[in-house]
Design a protein that fits this description.
Elements (H helix, E strand, L loop, with lengths): L6 E9 L3 H14 L6 H23 L5 E9 L3 E8 L7 H4 L16 H8 L2 E7 L3 E9 L4 H15 L4
Length: 165
């Protein structure tokens, strides 16, 4: 009897430095490649991961440095869950921090849209945080939803461009 994997999981831990934000983006894109996601789906996840990692680096640790953990699980049903966590300063008021335009950084340097972007690009977002202990951002996205309906439209567009319509 063949052993079917019901999920695939990755775990990585890296220094909380800005250069590693790009590493997290590349790793999550490579991890998703086996399920053949659309370019838009990959970009959505990369953006959400980028925002979460950037928040951990900038707001979680600031200048003092630390480690960021990314854990991703991809189910057989093509649902991705991603956790980005740090052991930084934590968030005193998560609800306030998740409001658009709220930032603890200098207004000219930060837009305050990190959580809003994560929420917009993923299907679900939850944030757990304790002051002095750190933060964990949990995100979920399902792949392939709604593609069946859009395929005939895409095929028709290609057909028309070829001059055969």
């Amino acid at each position: 009897m063949e052993n079917e994997r019901t999920k695939n999981e990755i775990y990585m831990e890296f220094d909380a430095i800005s250069e590693n934000e790009g590493l997290a983006r590349v790793v999550i894109a490579a991890f998703l490649s086996r399920i053949d996601p659309t370019v838009d789906e990959i970009e959505d996840v990369k953006t959400a991961v980028s925002e979460a990692v950037t928040n951990a680096i900038i707001h979680g640790y600031g200048e003092r440095g630390g480690r960021v953990v990314m854990r991703a699980v991809l189910s057989k049903e093509k649902e991705l869950s991603v956790d980005i966590s740090d052991k930084g300063v934590g968030i005193a008021d998560v609800e306030q921090a998740m409001q658009p335009l709220f930032t603890t950084g200098a207004a000219k340097e930060r837009s305050g849209m990190g959580f809003s972007f994560m929420e917009a690009f993923m299907d679900r977002l939850e944030v757990e945080s304790s002051v002095g202990e750190g933060t964990c951002v949990h995100m979920w996205k399902r792949f392939g939803v709604g593609q069946e309906e859009s395929e005939p439209i895409l095929q028709a567009a290609v057909w028309n461009r070829s001059g055969r319509a």
